[in-house]
Amino acid sequence: MAAGGYSPDAVGPFHAHMIPWLFERHGVARDAAVVDVGAGQGHGLIPLHRAGWRNLVAVDRDPLHFERFRAELGFRTFECDVEHEPLPLESASVDAVLMMHLIEHLFDPNHVLGELFRVLRGGGVLFVVTPDWRKQVKEFYRDPTHVRPYDKVAMARLLRAHSFEPTLHSWKSAWGLGRLQAYRWLPRLGLIGSDLLAVARRPRAA
To answer: DSSP alpha helices (H): ranges in 69-180?
Structure first.
């Protein structure tokens, strides 16, 4: 994938702008403990690092970029098959979790969602990005690694079943606004695209 331009050196402008905006909008402080589950090439964590977040953790079953993450960016890293293995993190030790374009690749998301609920502190927030089945029904299975589609209703029900309090949005730009990078001036234009964004809180203890 790096040969095609998708690498830690090629974070696009949408992620570079919108991920820090999303975290700021939902009150994730720059000293918060943030975990990217399915971190891949770092397109979730690198924008946060550039914007001033420093307590960042990358989790992935493929450690290809881990050495660079540790040496150049100071990320903690954990190799983990999150569909089957427990997350190597203490309970109630994390303030925010980012899970981008992973859940649609999992045959069974229940294990990882249970683990994410466990490691998040009360009031912590989970951000999930996945294709919106209602908007991508013709394209979804063109990626042969996609196994489970979601729309906003299904995602909300799944997260509530794991005791999260979700709100659902669209994600990415549309109608050529992405090419214009209009979200730089009006970030809500990054919430009209063909992906689905779930923002799910772990309730605070009573």
So the answer is: 110-119, 133-136, 152-161, 177-180
- The closest alpha carbon to 121, from 203, 5, 15, 20, belongs to 203
**What is the reported pLDDT for 85?**
98
Q: What is the mean pLDDT of the chain?
A: 94
CB 205 within 8 A of CB 33: no
16 and 47 in contact (C-beta within 8 Å)?
yes
DSSP type of residue 27? T
Cα Rg of the chain, angstroms:
16
For the stretch 47-80, pLDDT in tens is 999 999 999 999 999 999 999 999 999 999 999 9
Q: Taking the domains of the chain in order of start, what are their residue ranges? A: 2-201
Burial class (CB in 10 A: 0-12, 13-18, 19+), 36: buried
Architecture of domain 2-201: 3-Layer(aba) Sandwich (3.40)
Label residues 47-68 b or e (16+ Cβ within 10 Å = b). Answer: bbbeeebebbbbbbeeeebbee
Its pTM stands at 0.94
